[in-house]
Each structure stands twice: as structure tokens, then as C-alpha cells.
Amino acid sequence: MNPNSLVSIDDLSEEDILAILEDARFFEENPNHKILDGKVVATLFFEPSTRTRLSFETAVNRLGGRVIGFSDANTSSSSKGESLKDTIKMVSNYVDLIIMRHFQAGAAEYACSVTDTPVINAGDGSNQHPSQTMLDLYSILKTQGRLDNLDITMVGDLKYGRTVHSLLEAMRFFKPRFRFVSCPELAMPQEYIDICEKLGMPYEIHTELSPEVINSTDILYMTRVQRERFEDLAVYERVKDCYSLNNAMLEGSRDNLRVLHPLPRLNEIAEDVDDNPKAYYFDQARNGLFARQALICRALGISTDDIRAAESK
Ligand code: CP
From residue 225, how far is each of 101, 167, 207 by CA, in Å? Predict the structure, then answer.
């Protein structure tokens, strides 16, 4: 495995996270640099994506690199039965970095094990989505001015939602207080409750998105119910509209509250929230570009110090 790969948010220390956030800030202020001249990056998306793929590809383009890959695995030889191992070994012949989304939890770790090329996990099943977490952290830092001692409420599909799993683990350095709001079928998995217990991160479990919960929250992290993960679609139909945030529900909330959502959204945030200054989800997605520029540079061993040095010549 290439040590610069990013499979799980657990791969990053607090120091790593803070350095990536600092680099994200640098790229937000200076998005265009030709530091990837001559580099080729593969985006292999075995599952659909809008934001993750396009922001990664924009990040490569803005840094002067080239992108190959596929957004639909049916157009690749995996549709003929080629294994993930063989696909990764082939693509490794051509590129400097692989960015991969896959429907199976653990696929990114497996991909890393069969290549020396760095791999960034762009989401593996219901497991992890570490690049999303870095843009979430960047969004939290920008809106709250800090990462520590925040009240974070996660709402919706906490069972299958890989973004909440990664974010929960990333917050272990920053003394969060969590509230998990879901219907029982979509509760936060026990392994993540165990992490909270082990690391002393206080949490409450709720089934109602009540005014008391909303009004004592700094970050309200809404999520979509992940239809594609359900074995029994009858269960999905029963739980899909458990929560729907509307503007009136934010009336008594803290001034600093921001509504985050990894997107895409369905019915869990009404469109009347979009114009509320506390709605941050579209800005959050924009932050993905800068966080991903930082992650690409990290994976390729390029520091922003190198960029500054190159530009001062
Ligand atoms: N947040 C996120 O992963 O969005 P996409 O599925 O559109 O990439």
C-alpha cells in the first residue's frame, strides 16, 4: 500500500487534518496552479456521483494535471467480468493517482493492497467517505471559526450514511457533543457508538428532530436515506421521509447554526430552507474543490510550500 493513500479518515492524524485544512484554505485563495503538469489521475467511479467526481476532476484540471477514467463502470471491462484487482493493476500502469468510488465497503482498502500507486477512497459502500469529511471539516471550520467543543446533530440515515461515519471518527480530536437523530431502522451502527464510548465523545440518541435538539445545535448535519443500500425496498418506503427540515423549524436556532448536507438531497430539506442564511450545503459542496485539491497534492507528495517556492522563482 502506498503510504500516501487515503482509505479511511482514521489514516489521518490531527496534525494531518489541520495541515490539509490549511492547504484547503490556500487553494481557496489561490485555486489555479500548474503544479500537476505531466501528472495523470484516474477517476474510477463504480457508483454514481455528481459532486465528488466533478470536484476531484476540477481540482486536477485547476492544478494542470490530466484526468482519465470512467463515471459508469458499465463502460469499463468490469462489465465483462474483469476483477477489481485486475482493473486496479491495469490502471496503475497509466496513472500517478487513482481516485475510486465503489459500492462495496472495503473496496478502497483492497485496491490499495494490490497497487503501489496512491489511492484516494471517494466512498466505499456504507463504510467511509474521507474526502467528504475533509470538506465537511473545512466547512465547519469556516462557519464556526473552530472545530472543537461543538454540538453536532446528525440526522437521517445514520446506518448507511458513510459521510456521518467518517465525520464522527474525524471529530475524535475535537471534543464534540453528538446527537444522533434517526428512526430505529437507521440508527448509528454499534461500532460507531462504541467509538464514542471508547473515546469519551458524549452522545444522545433521539428519534425526533425536536425544537430542543435543533435549538441546542451548532452543526445540523442532514443526510439522505440511501435507497441503494436497502435489501428490502418496503423498509425504504417506510422510513424514507422520516425527517424533513423546513424553514420554520430553524426559527429558534442558534445564530451560528449551519445546516450541512453532503448532498444529493431528496425530501429531508425543504427548498424553503435554501435561502436561509443558515443553509450552508451548496457552499459546503463548493468547499469540496479546495479540500480535494489539498488531498490530491498530499497523495502525490506535493506541499503548498513547494508551490510557494516554485512561484517565488
Ligand atoms: N456528497 C457526495 O458524495 O455527492 P456525490 O454522490 O454527488 O458525489
Answer: 19, 17, 15
Q: What is the pLDDT of residues 131-186, one digit of tens each?
A: 999 999 999 999 999 999 999 999 999 999 999 999 999 999 999 999 999 999 99
Find the 308 Cα to ligand 1 centroid distance in Å. Answer: 31
Helix (H) or strand (E) holding 54: helix 51-62
Distance CA 198, CA 192 (A): 10
What's the sign of the alpha-carbon dihedral 32, 34, 35, 38? positive
Consecutive H or E run containing 203: strand 203-206
Please report which confidence band the pLDDT of residue 192 belongs to, taking 50, 70 and 90 as the band edges.
Answer: very high
3-state secondary structure of 126: coil
List, by residue number, the catalytic residues: 51-52, 80, 101, 129
Residue 221 has pLDDT above 80, yes or no: yes
pLDDT exceeds cutoff 90 at 282: yes
Please, what is the average pLDDT of the chain?
96
Q: Do residues 243 and 223 touch, judged by C-beta distance below 8 A?
A: no
Indicate which residue's Cα is closest to atom 3 of ligand 1.
Answer: 52
Query: At a CB cut-off of 8 Å and minimum separation 6, what does 188 contact?
Result: 154, 158, 159, 164, 168, 180, 182, 205
Distance of alpha carbon 290 from alpha carbon 311, whole angstroms = 19
Pocket perturbation via mutation, ligand 1, pick of 49, 99, 224 by most ligand atoms within 8 A of CB: 49
Asked whether the predicted pLDDT for residue 31 surpasses 90, the reply is no
Please calculate the CA angle 119-120-121 and round it to the nearest 5 degrees.
115
**Residue whose cell numbers read 462557519:** 143
Hey, whose CA ends up nearest to atom 1 of ligand 1? Answer: 262
